[in-house]
Amino acid sequence: LPVQSAITQPRPGAAVPAGELTVKGYAWSGGGREVVRVDVSLDGGRTWRVARLGGERPVPGRAWAWALWELQAPVA
């Protein structure tokens, strides 16, 4: 199963101030496979940034839960 992900912050349609933005979310895979990377695009897929994965890392082959991720990005 390809990695699936959801953004939890900011909320859809939220107004965000110019400057530094924190984008948060969660990701999961399938078959007990660990999420090792989450890429985030803030411009419709033209460029991508690698998010920081949080929390404890699972035992290899035993990753049955979602992983939290976070990205700090500049906003015009």
Task: Please give a structural write-up.
It is a single chain. The protein has strands at 4-9, 19-28, 39-40, 49-50, 52-53, 67-75. The model has no long low-confidence stretch (mean pLDDT 86). By secondary structure, it is mainly beta. It is built from no helices and 6 strands. The protein has a single domain (3-75), classed as Sandwich (Immunoglobulin-like). It is elongated and about 40 Å long. The relative contact order is 0.32. Keywords: Metal-binding, Molybdenum, Oxidoreductase. GO terms for molecular function: heme binding; molybdenum ion binding; molybdopterin cofactor binding; sulfite oxidase activity. It holds the Pfam family Mo-co_dimer. This is SUOX oxidase. InterPro entries: Ig_E-set (IPR014756), MoCF_OxRdtse_dimer (IPR005066), Mopterin_OxRdtase_euk (IPR008335).
Give the strand tally: 6
Q: What is CATH's topology name? A: Immunoglobulin-like
Helix content range: under 10%
CATH class: Mainly Beta
* CATH architecture term: Sandwich
The largest sheet is: 4 strands, antiparallel
Q: Encode the helix/strand succession as letters.
A: EEEEEE
- Backbone structural class: mainly beta
Domains, number: 1
The DSSP helix count reads 0
Strand order of the largest sheet: 1-2-6-5
Radius of gyration: 14 Å
Tell me, briefly, the overall form. elongated
Topology at a glance:
Elements: E1 4-9, E2 19-28, E3 39-40, E4 49-50, E5 52-53, E6 67-75
Antiparallel strand pairs: 1-2, 2-6, 3-4, 5-6
